[in-house]
């Protein structure tokens, strides 16, 4: 039986003599154990360049079997220096690792999880940024639901696949869609259904640009060129935003007049700032409820936030679980609807900008205001009783301590409240 | 009761008790008179009521001597603390024993009317009002690495179980925990502000690389808002409120200071150390262990080891020394200032201040806008 199996292996070795010599002595066994991987490698540029298994995987077979010989980006970097440099300068290379977090203190952690961030024998993680939403996940959810995308920081194969090097794979927008889709940032869907996507489908990428045309111009691995806001949709300061805008205008100008491109982008900036104002209005309502102890449950009455403890969090570390209902609405508003509005605008998609985005955003605000009224009424017990001086002063103190009131405003507001005591 | 009646009653007590010996080593100005009025065991507690009754511990028994000289003896274990209620109709006593303390209330005739037990050793008693007794208690738990000292405040209405509040929790180094008990338990003396809304008390701190000391804090009883106001040496933990409630007398080994609760700093100083400072009802006199001051001048001196309590009307000083209780009369004090007519508003402002909802400046400004007493 073994002999029968070795015949095709021998044939393959005979057909690819150069490749076989590069991969000795792995090929005979792996033709049997992982024939697809061998076949993919044999058809790759690596095989043609005599880059064998050991060059990337090393020689410690035990570690490979245990899954501890991961081919990280530093393995690829010595040969692909330019790509590595561009990648590490981009949001793919630095920001997305923040999707992770140290699971050391979680009760159900798996030992192997440490390798998400730590090289063997290295106590220093590759990033000290942590993600509260990751820390709330089970190890299984964290792996498939978080790290499958956020591993892009250190994994070329996140886009390129593991053993194939055919650039057709990574030039296909579908390779981006694995992560850039869904309710929180449906860039793939909004591109597909935009005029750019439609033309791409009907006339090809020379007429209809795809992800790579605009975000990886001239084949760069810096996917953040031309982006003028952070991943949460907050505009960059001018010193960072203006050069990025100039880059994007130049990219658009390969098809459009620069003045047209600039005008389009500036209109979308307006949509972004208008939408951000709606978002901030909702956020202020929630903080005001928190100041008055009206959230249900209050942060002190629910499991503590993994990074901030028993405090209200509405920034990028906001959770969608173990929160009050009104915060859950705000999460959807911020992470889904605000993101869809602004990304829809920049991707030239009217439906995402308006109906999936801005309309939802405005309806969320209606819901948040309504829920806030309900919470306030409930506190009153149905009776419109005025708040006591002490309650009013306590609310002012909380507002001052979180920076919502200046020292002067705080003193002025307190004086007004104390006036009522006379 | 008028001043005349109070003094007369205490003299009557002295005469009826057949005590006329004076206090050796005392130097008092003309017009002062010292009369022995009762027995009082060394280091044992004593108190004087609003009506002139005296409570002391003599030969291990509590003795209540009323203004007519009638002596009531309460055959109990020695009390660790005694305190008359504001109206003088109740006497509270604490009896520490084996890791717990029995609190008892007696009526004017010495009949026990209520009893409760609390964990720890009660080191001081104070009445917040006629209905609420406060007791400061310490519990010590020993470990190999040191001892855990907890300071507790008990609030008792005489009917339900005392309610406990943890005031402080410190780890003592072994060498501090091995200190003599009379030193270790010589703290947590509760003083109630004239407004009845706040207490001042001292608790032991034992920082790792410094000498242990006593931290003096004030605490609003309603809000639990606390602030540290002073530090003092071990063994000098008794504090006294000034009559306006805006200051505290805090003594140490070198002298006694008046701490302004507005500015949180010492605003007056007497060169006399005080382990049990006392201040007269109007604030004119201060008794600092061996010396009676009128303002900043020494008015009288008494032998070492004297402890004193001013009579509620300011006409005299009850003084305990070497087994006897003396009355020092002839003081020319005024009554305590009346509480302001808008007391409720003032209490609200103090409550706000205790929680940090208004600043000291805002408190003073609003207070000044209120009506005067």
Mean pLDDT of chain A: 87
Helix content of chain A: 55-70%
List how many beta strands of chain A DSSP finds: 0
Beta fraction of chain A: under 5%
Structural shape of chain B: globular
Structural class of chain A: mainly alpha
Describe the structure.
- The complex is a heterodimer of chains A (422) and B (373).
- Chain A is mainly alpha-helical and 422 residues long.
- Chain A has helices at 2-15, 17-23, 27-33, 35-42, 45-48, 53-57, 61-66, 73-76, 81-88, 91-94, 132-135, 139-150, 157-160, 167-171, 173-177, 187-192, 195-203, 211-215, 238-252, 258-291, 325-346, 350-380, 389-401, 407-419.
- Chain A contains 24 helices and no strands.
- In chain A, helix 1 (2-15) crosses helix 3 (27-33), helix 20 runs antiparallel to helix 21 and helix 23 runs antiparallel to helix 24.
- The longest helix of chain A has 34 residues, at 258-291.
- Chain B has a domain at 344-373.
- Chain B has five helices and 28 strands.
- Chain B has a four-stranded antiparallel sheet with strand order 1-28-27-26. A four-stranded antiparallel sheet of chain B has the order 2-3-4-5, with no helix packed on it.
- In chain B, a hairpin with a 6-residue loop joins strand 12 and strand 13.
- In chain B, helix 4 (343-354) runs antiparallel to helix 5.
- The A-B interface holds A 389-390, 393-394, 396-397, 411, 414-415, 418, 421-422 and B 345, 348-349, 351-352, 355-358, 362, 366, 369.
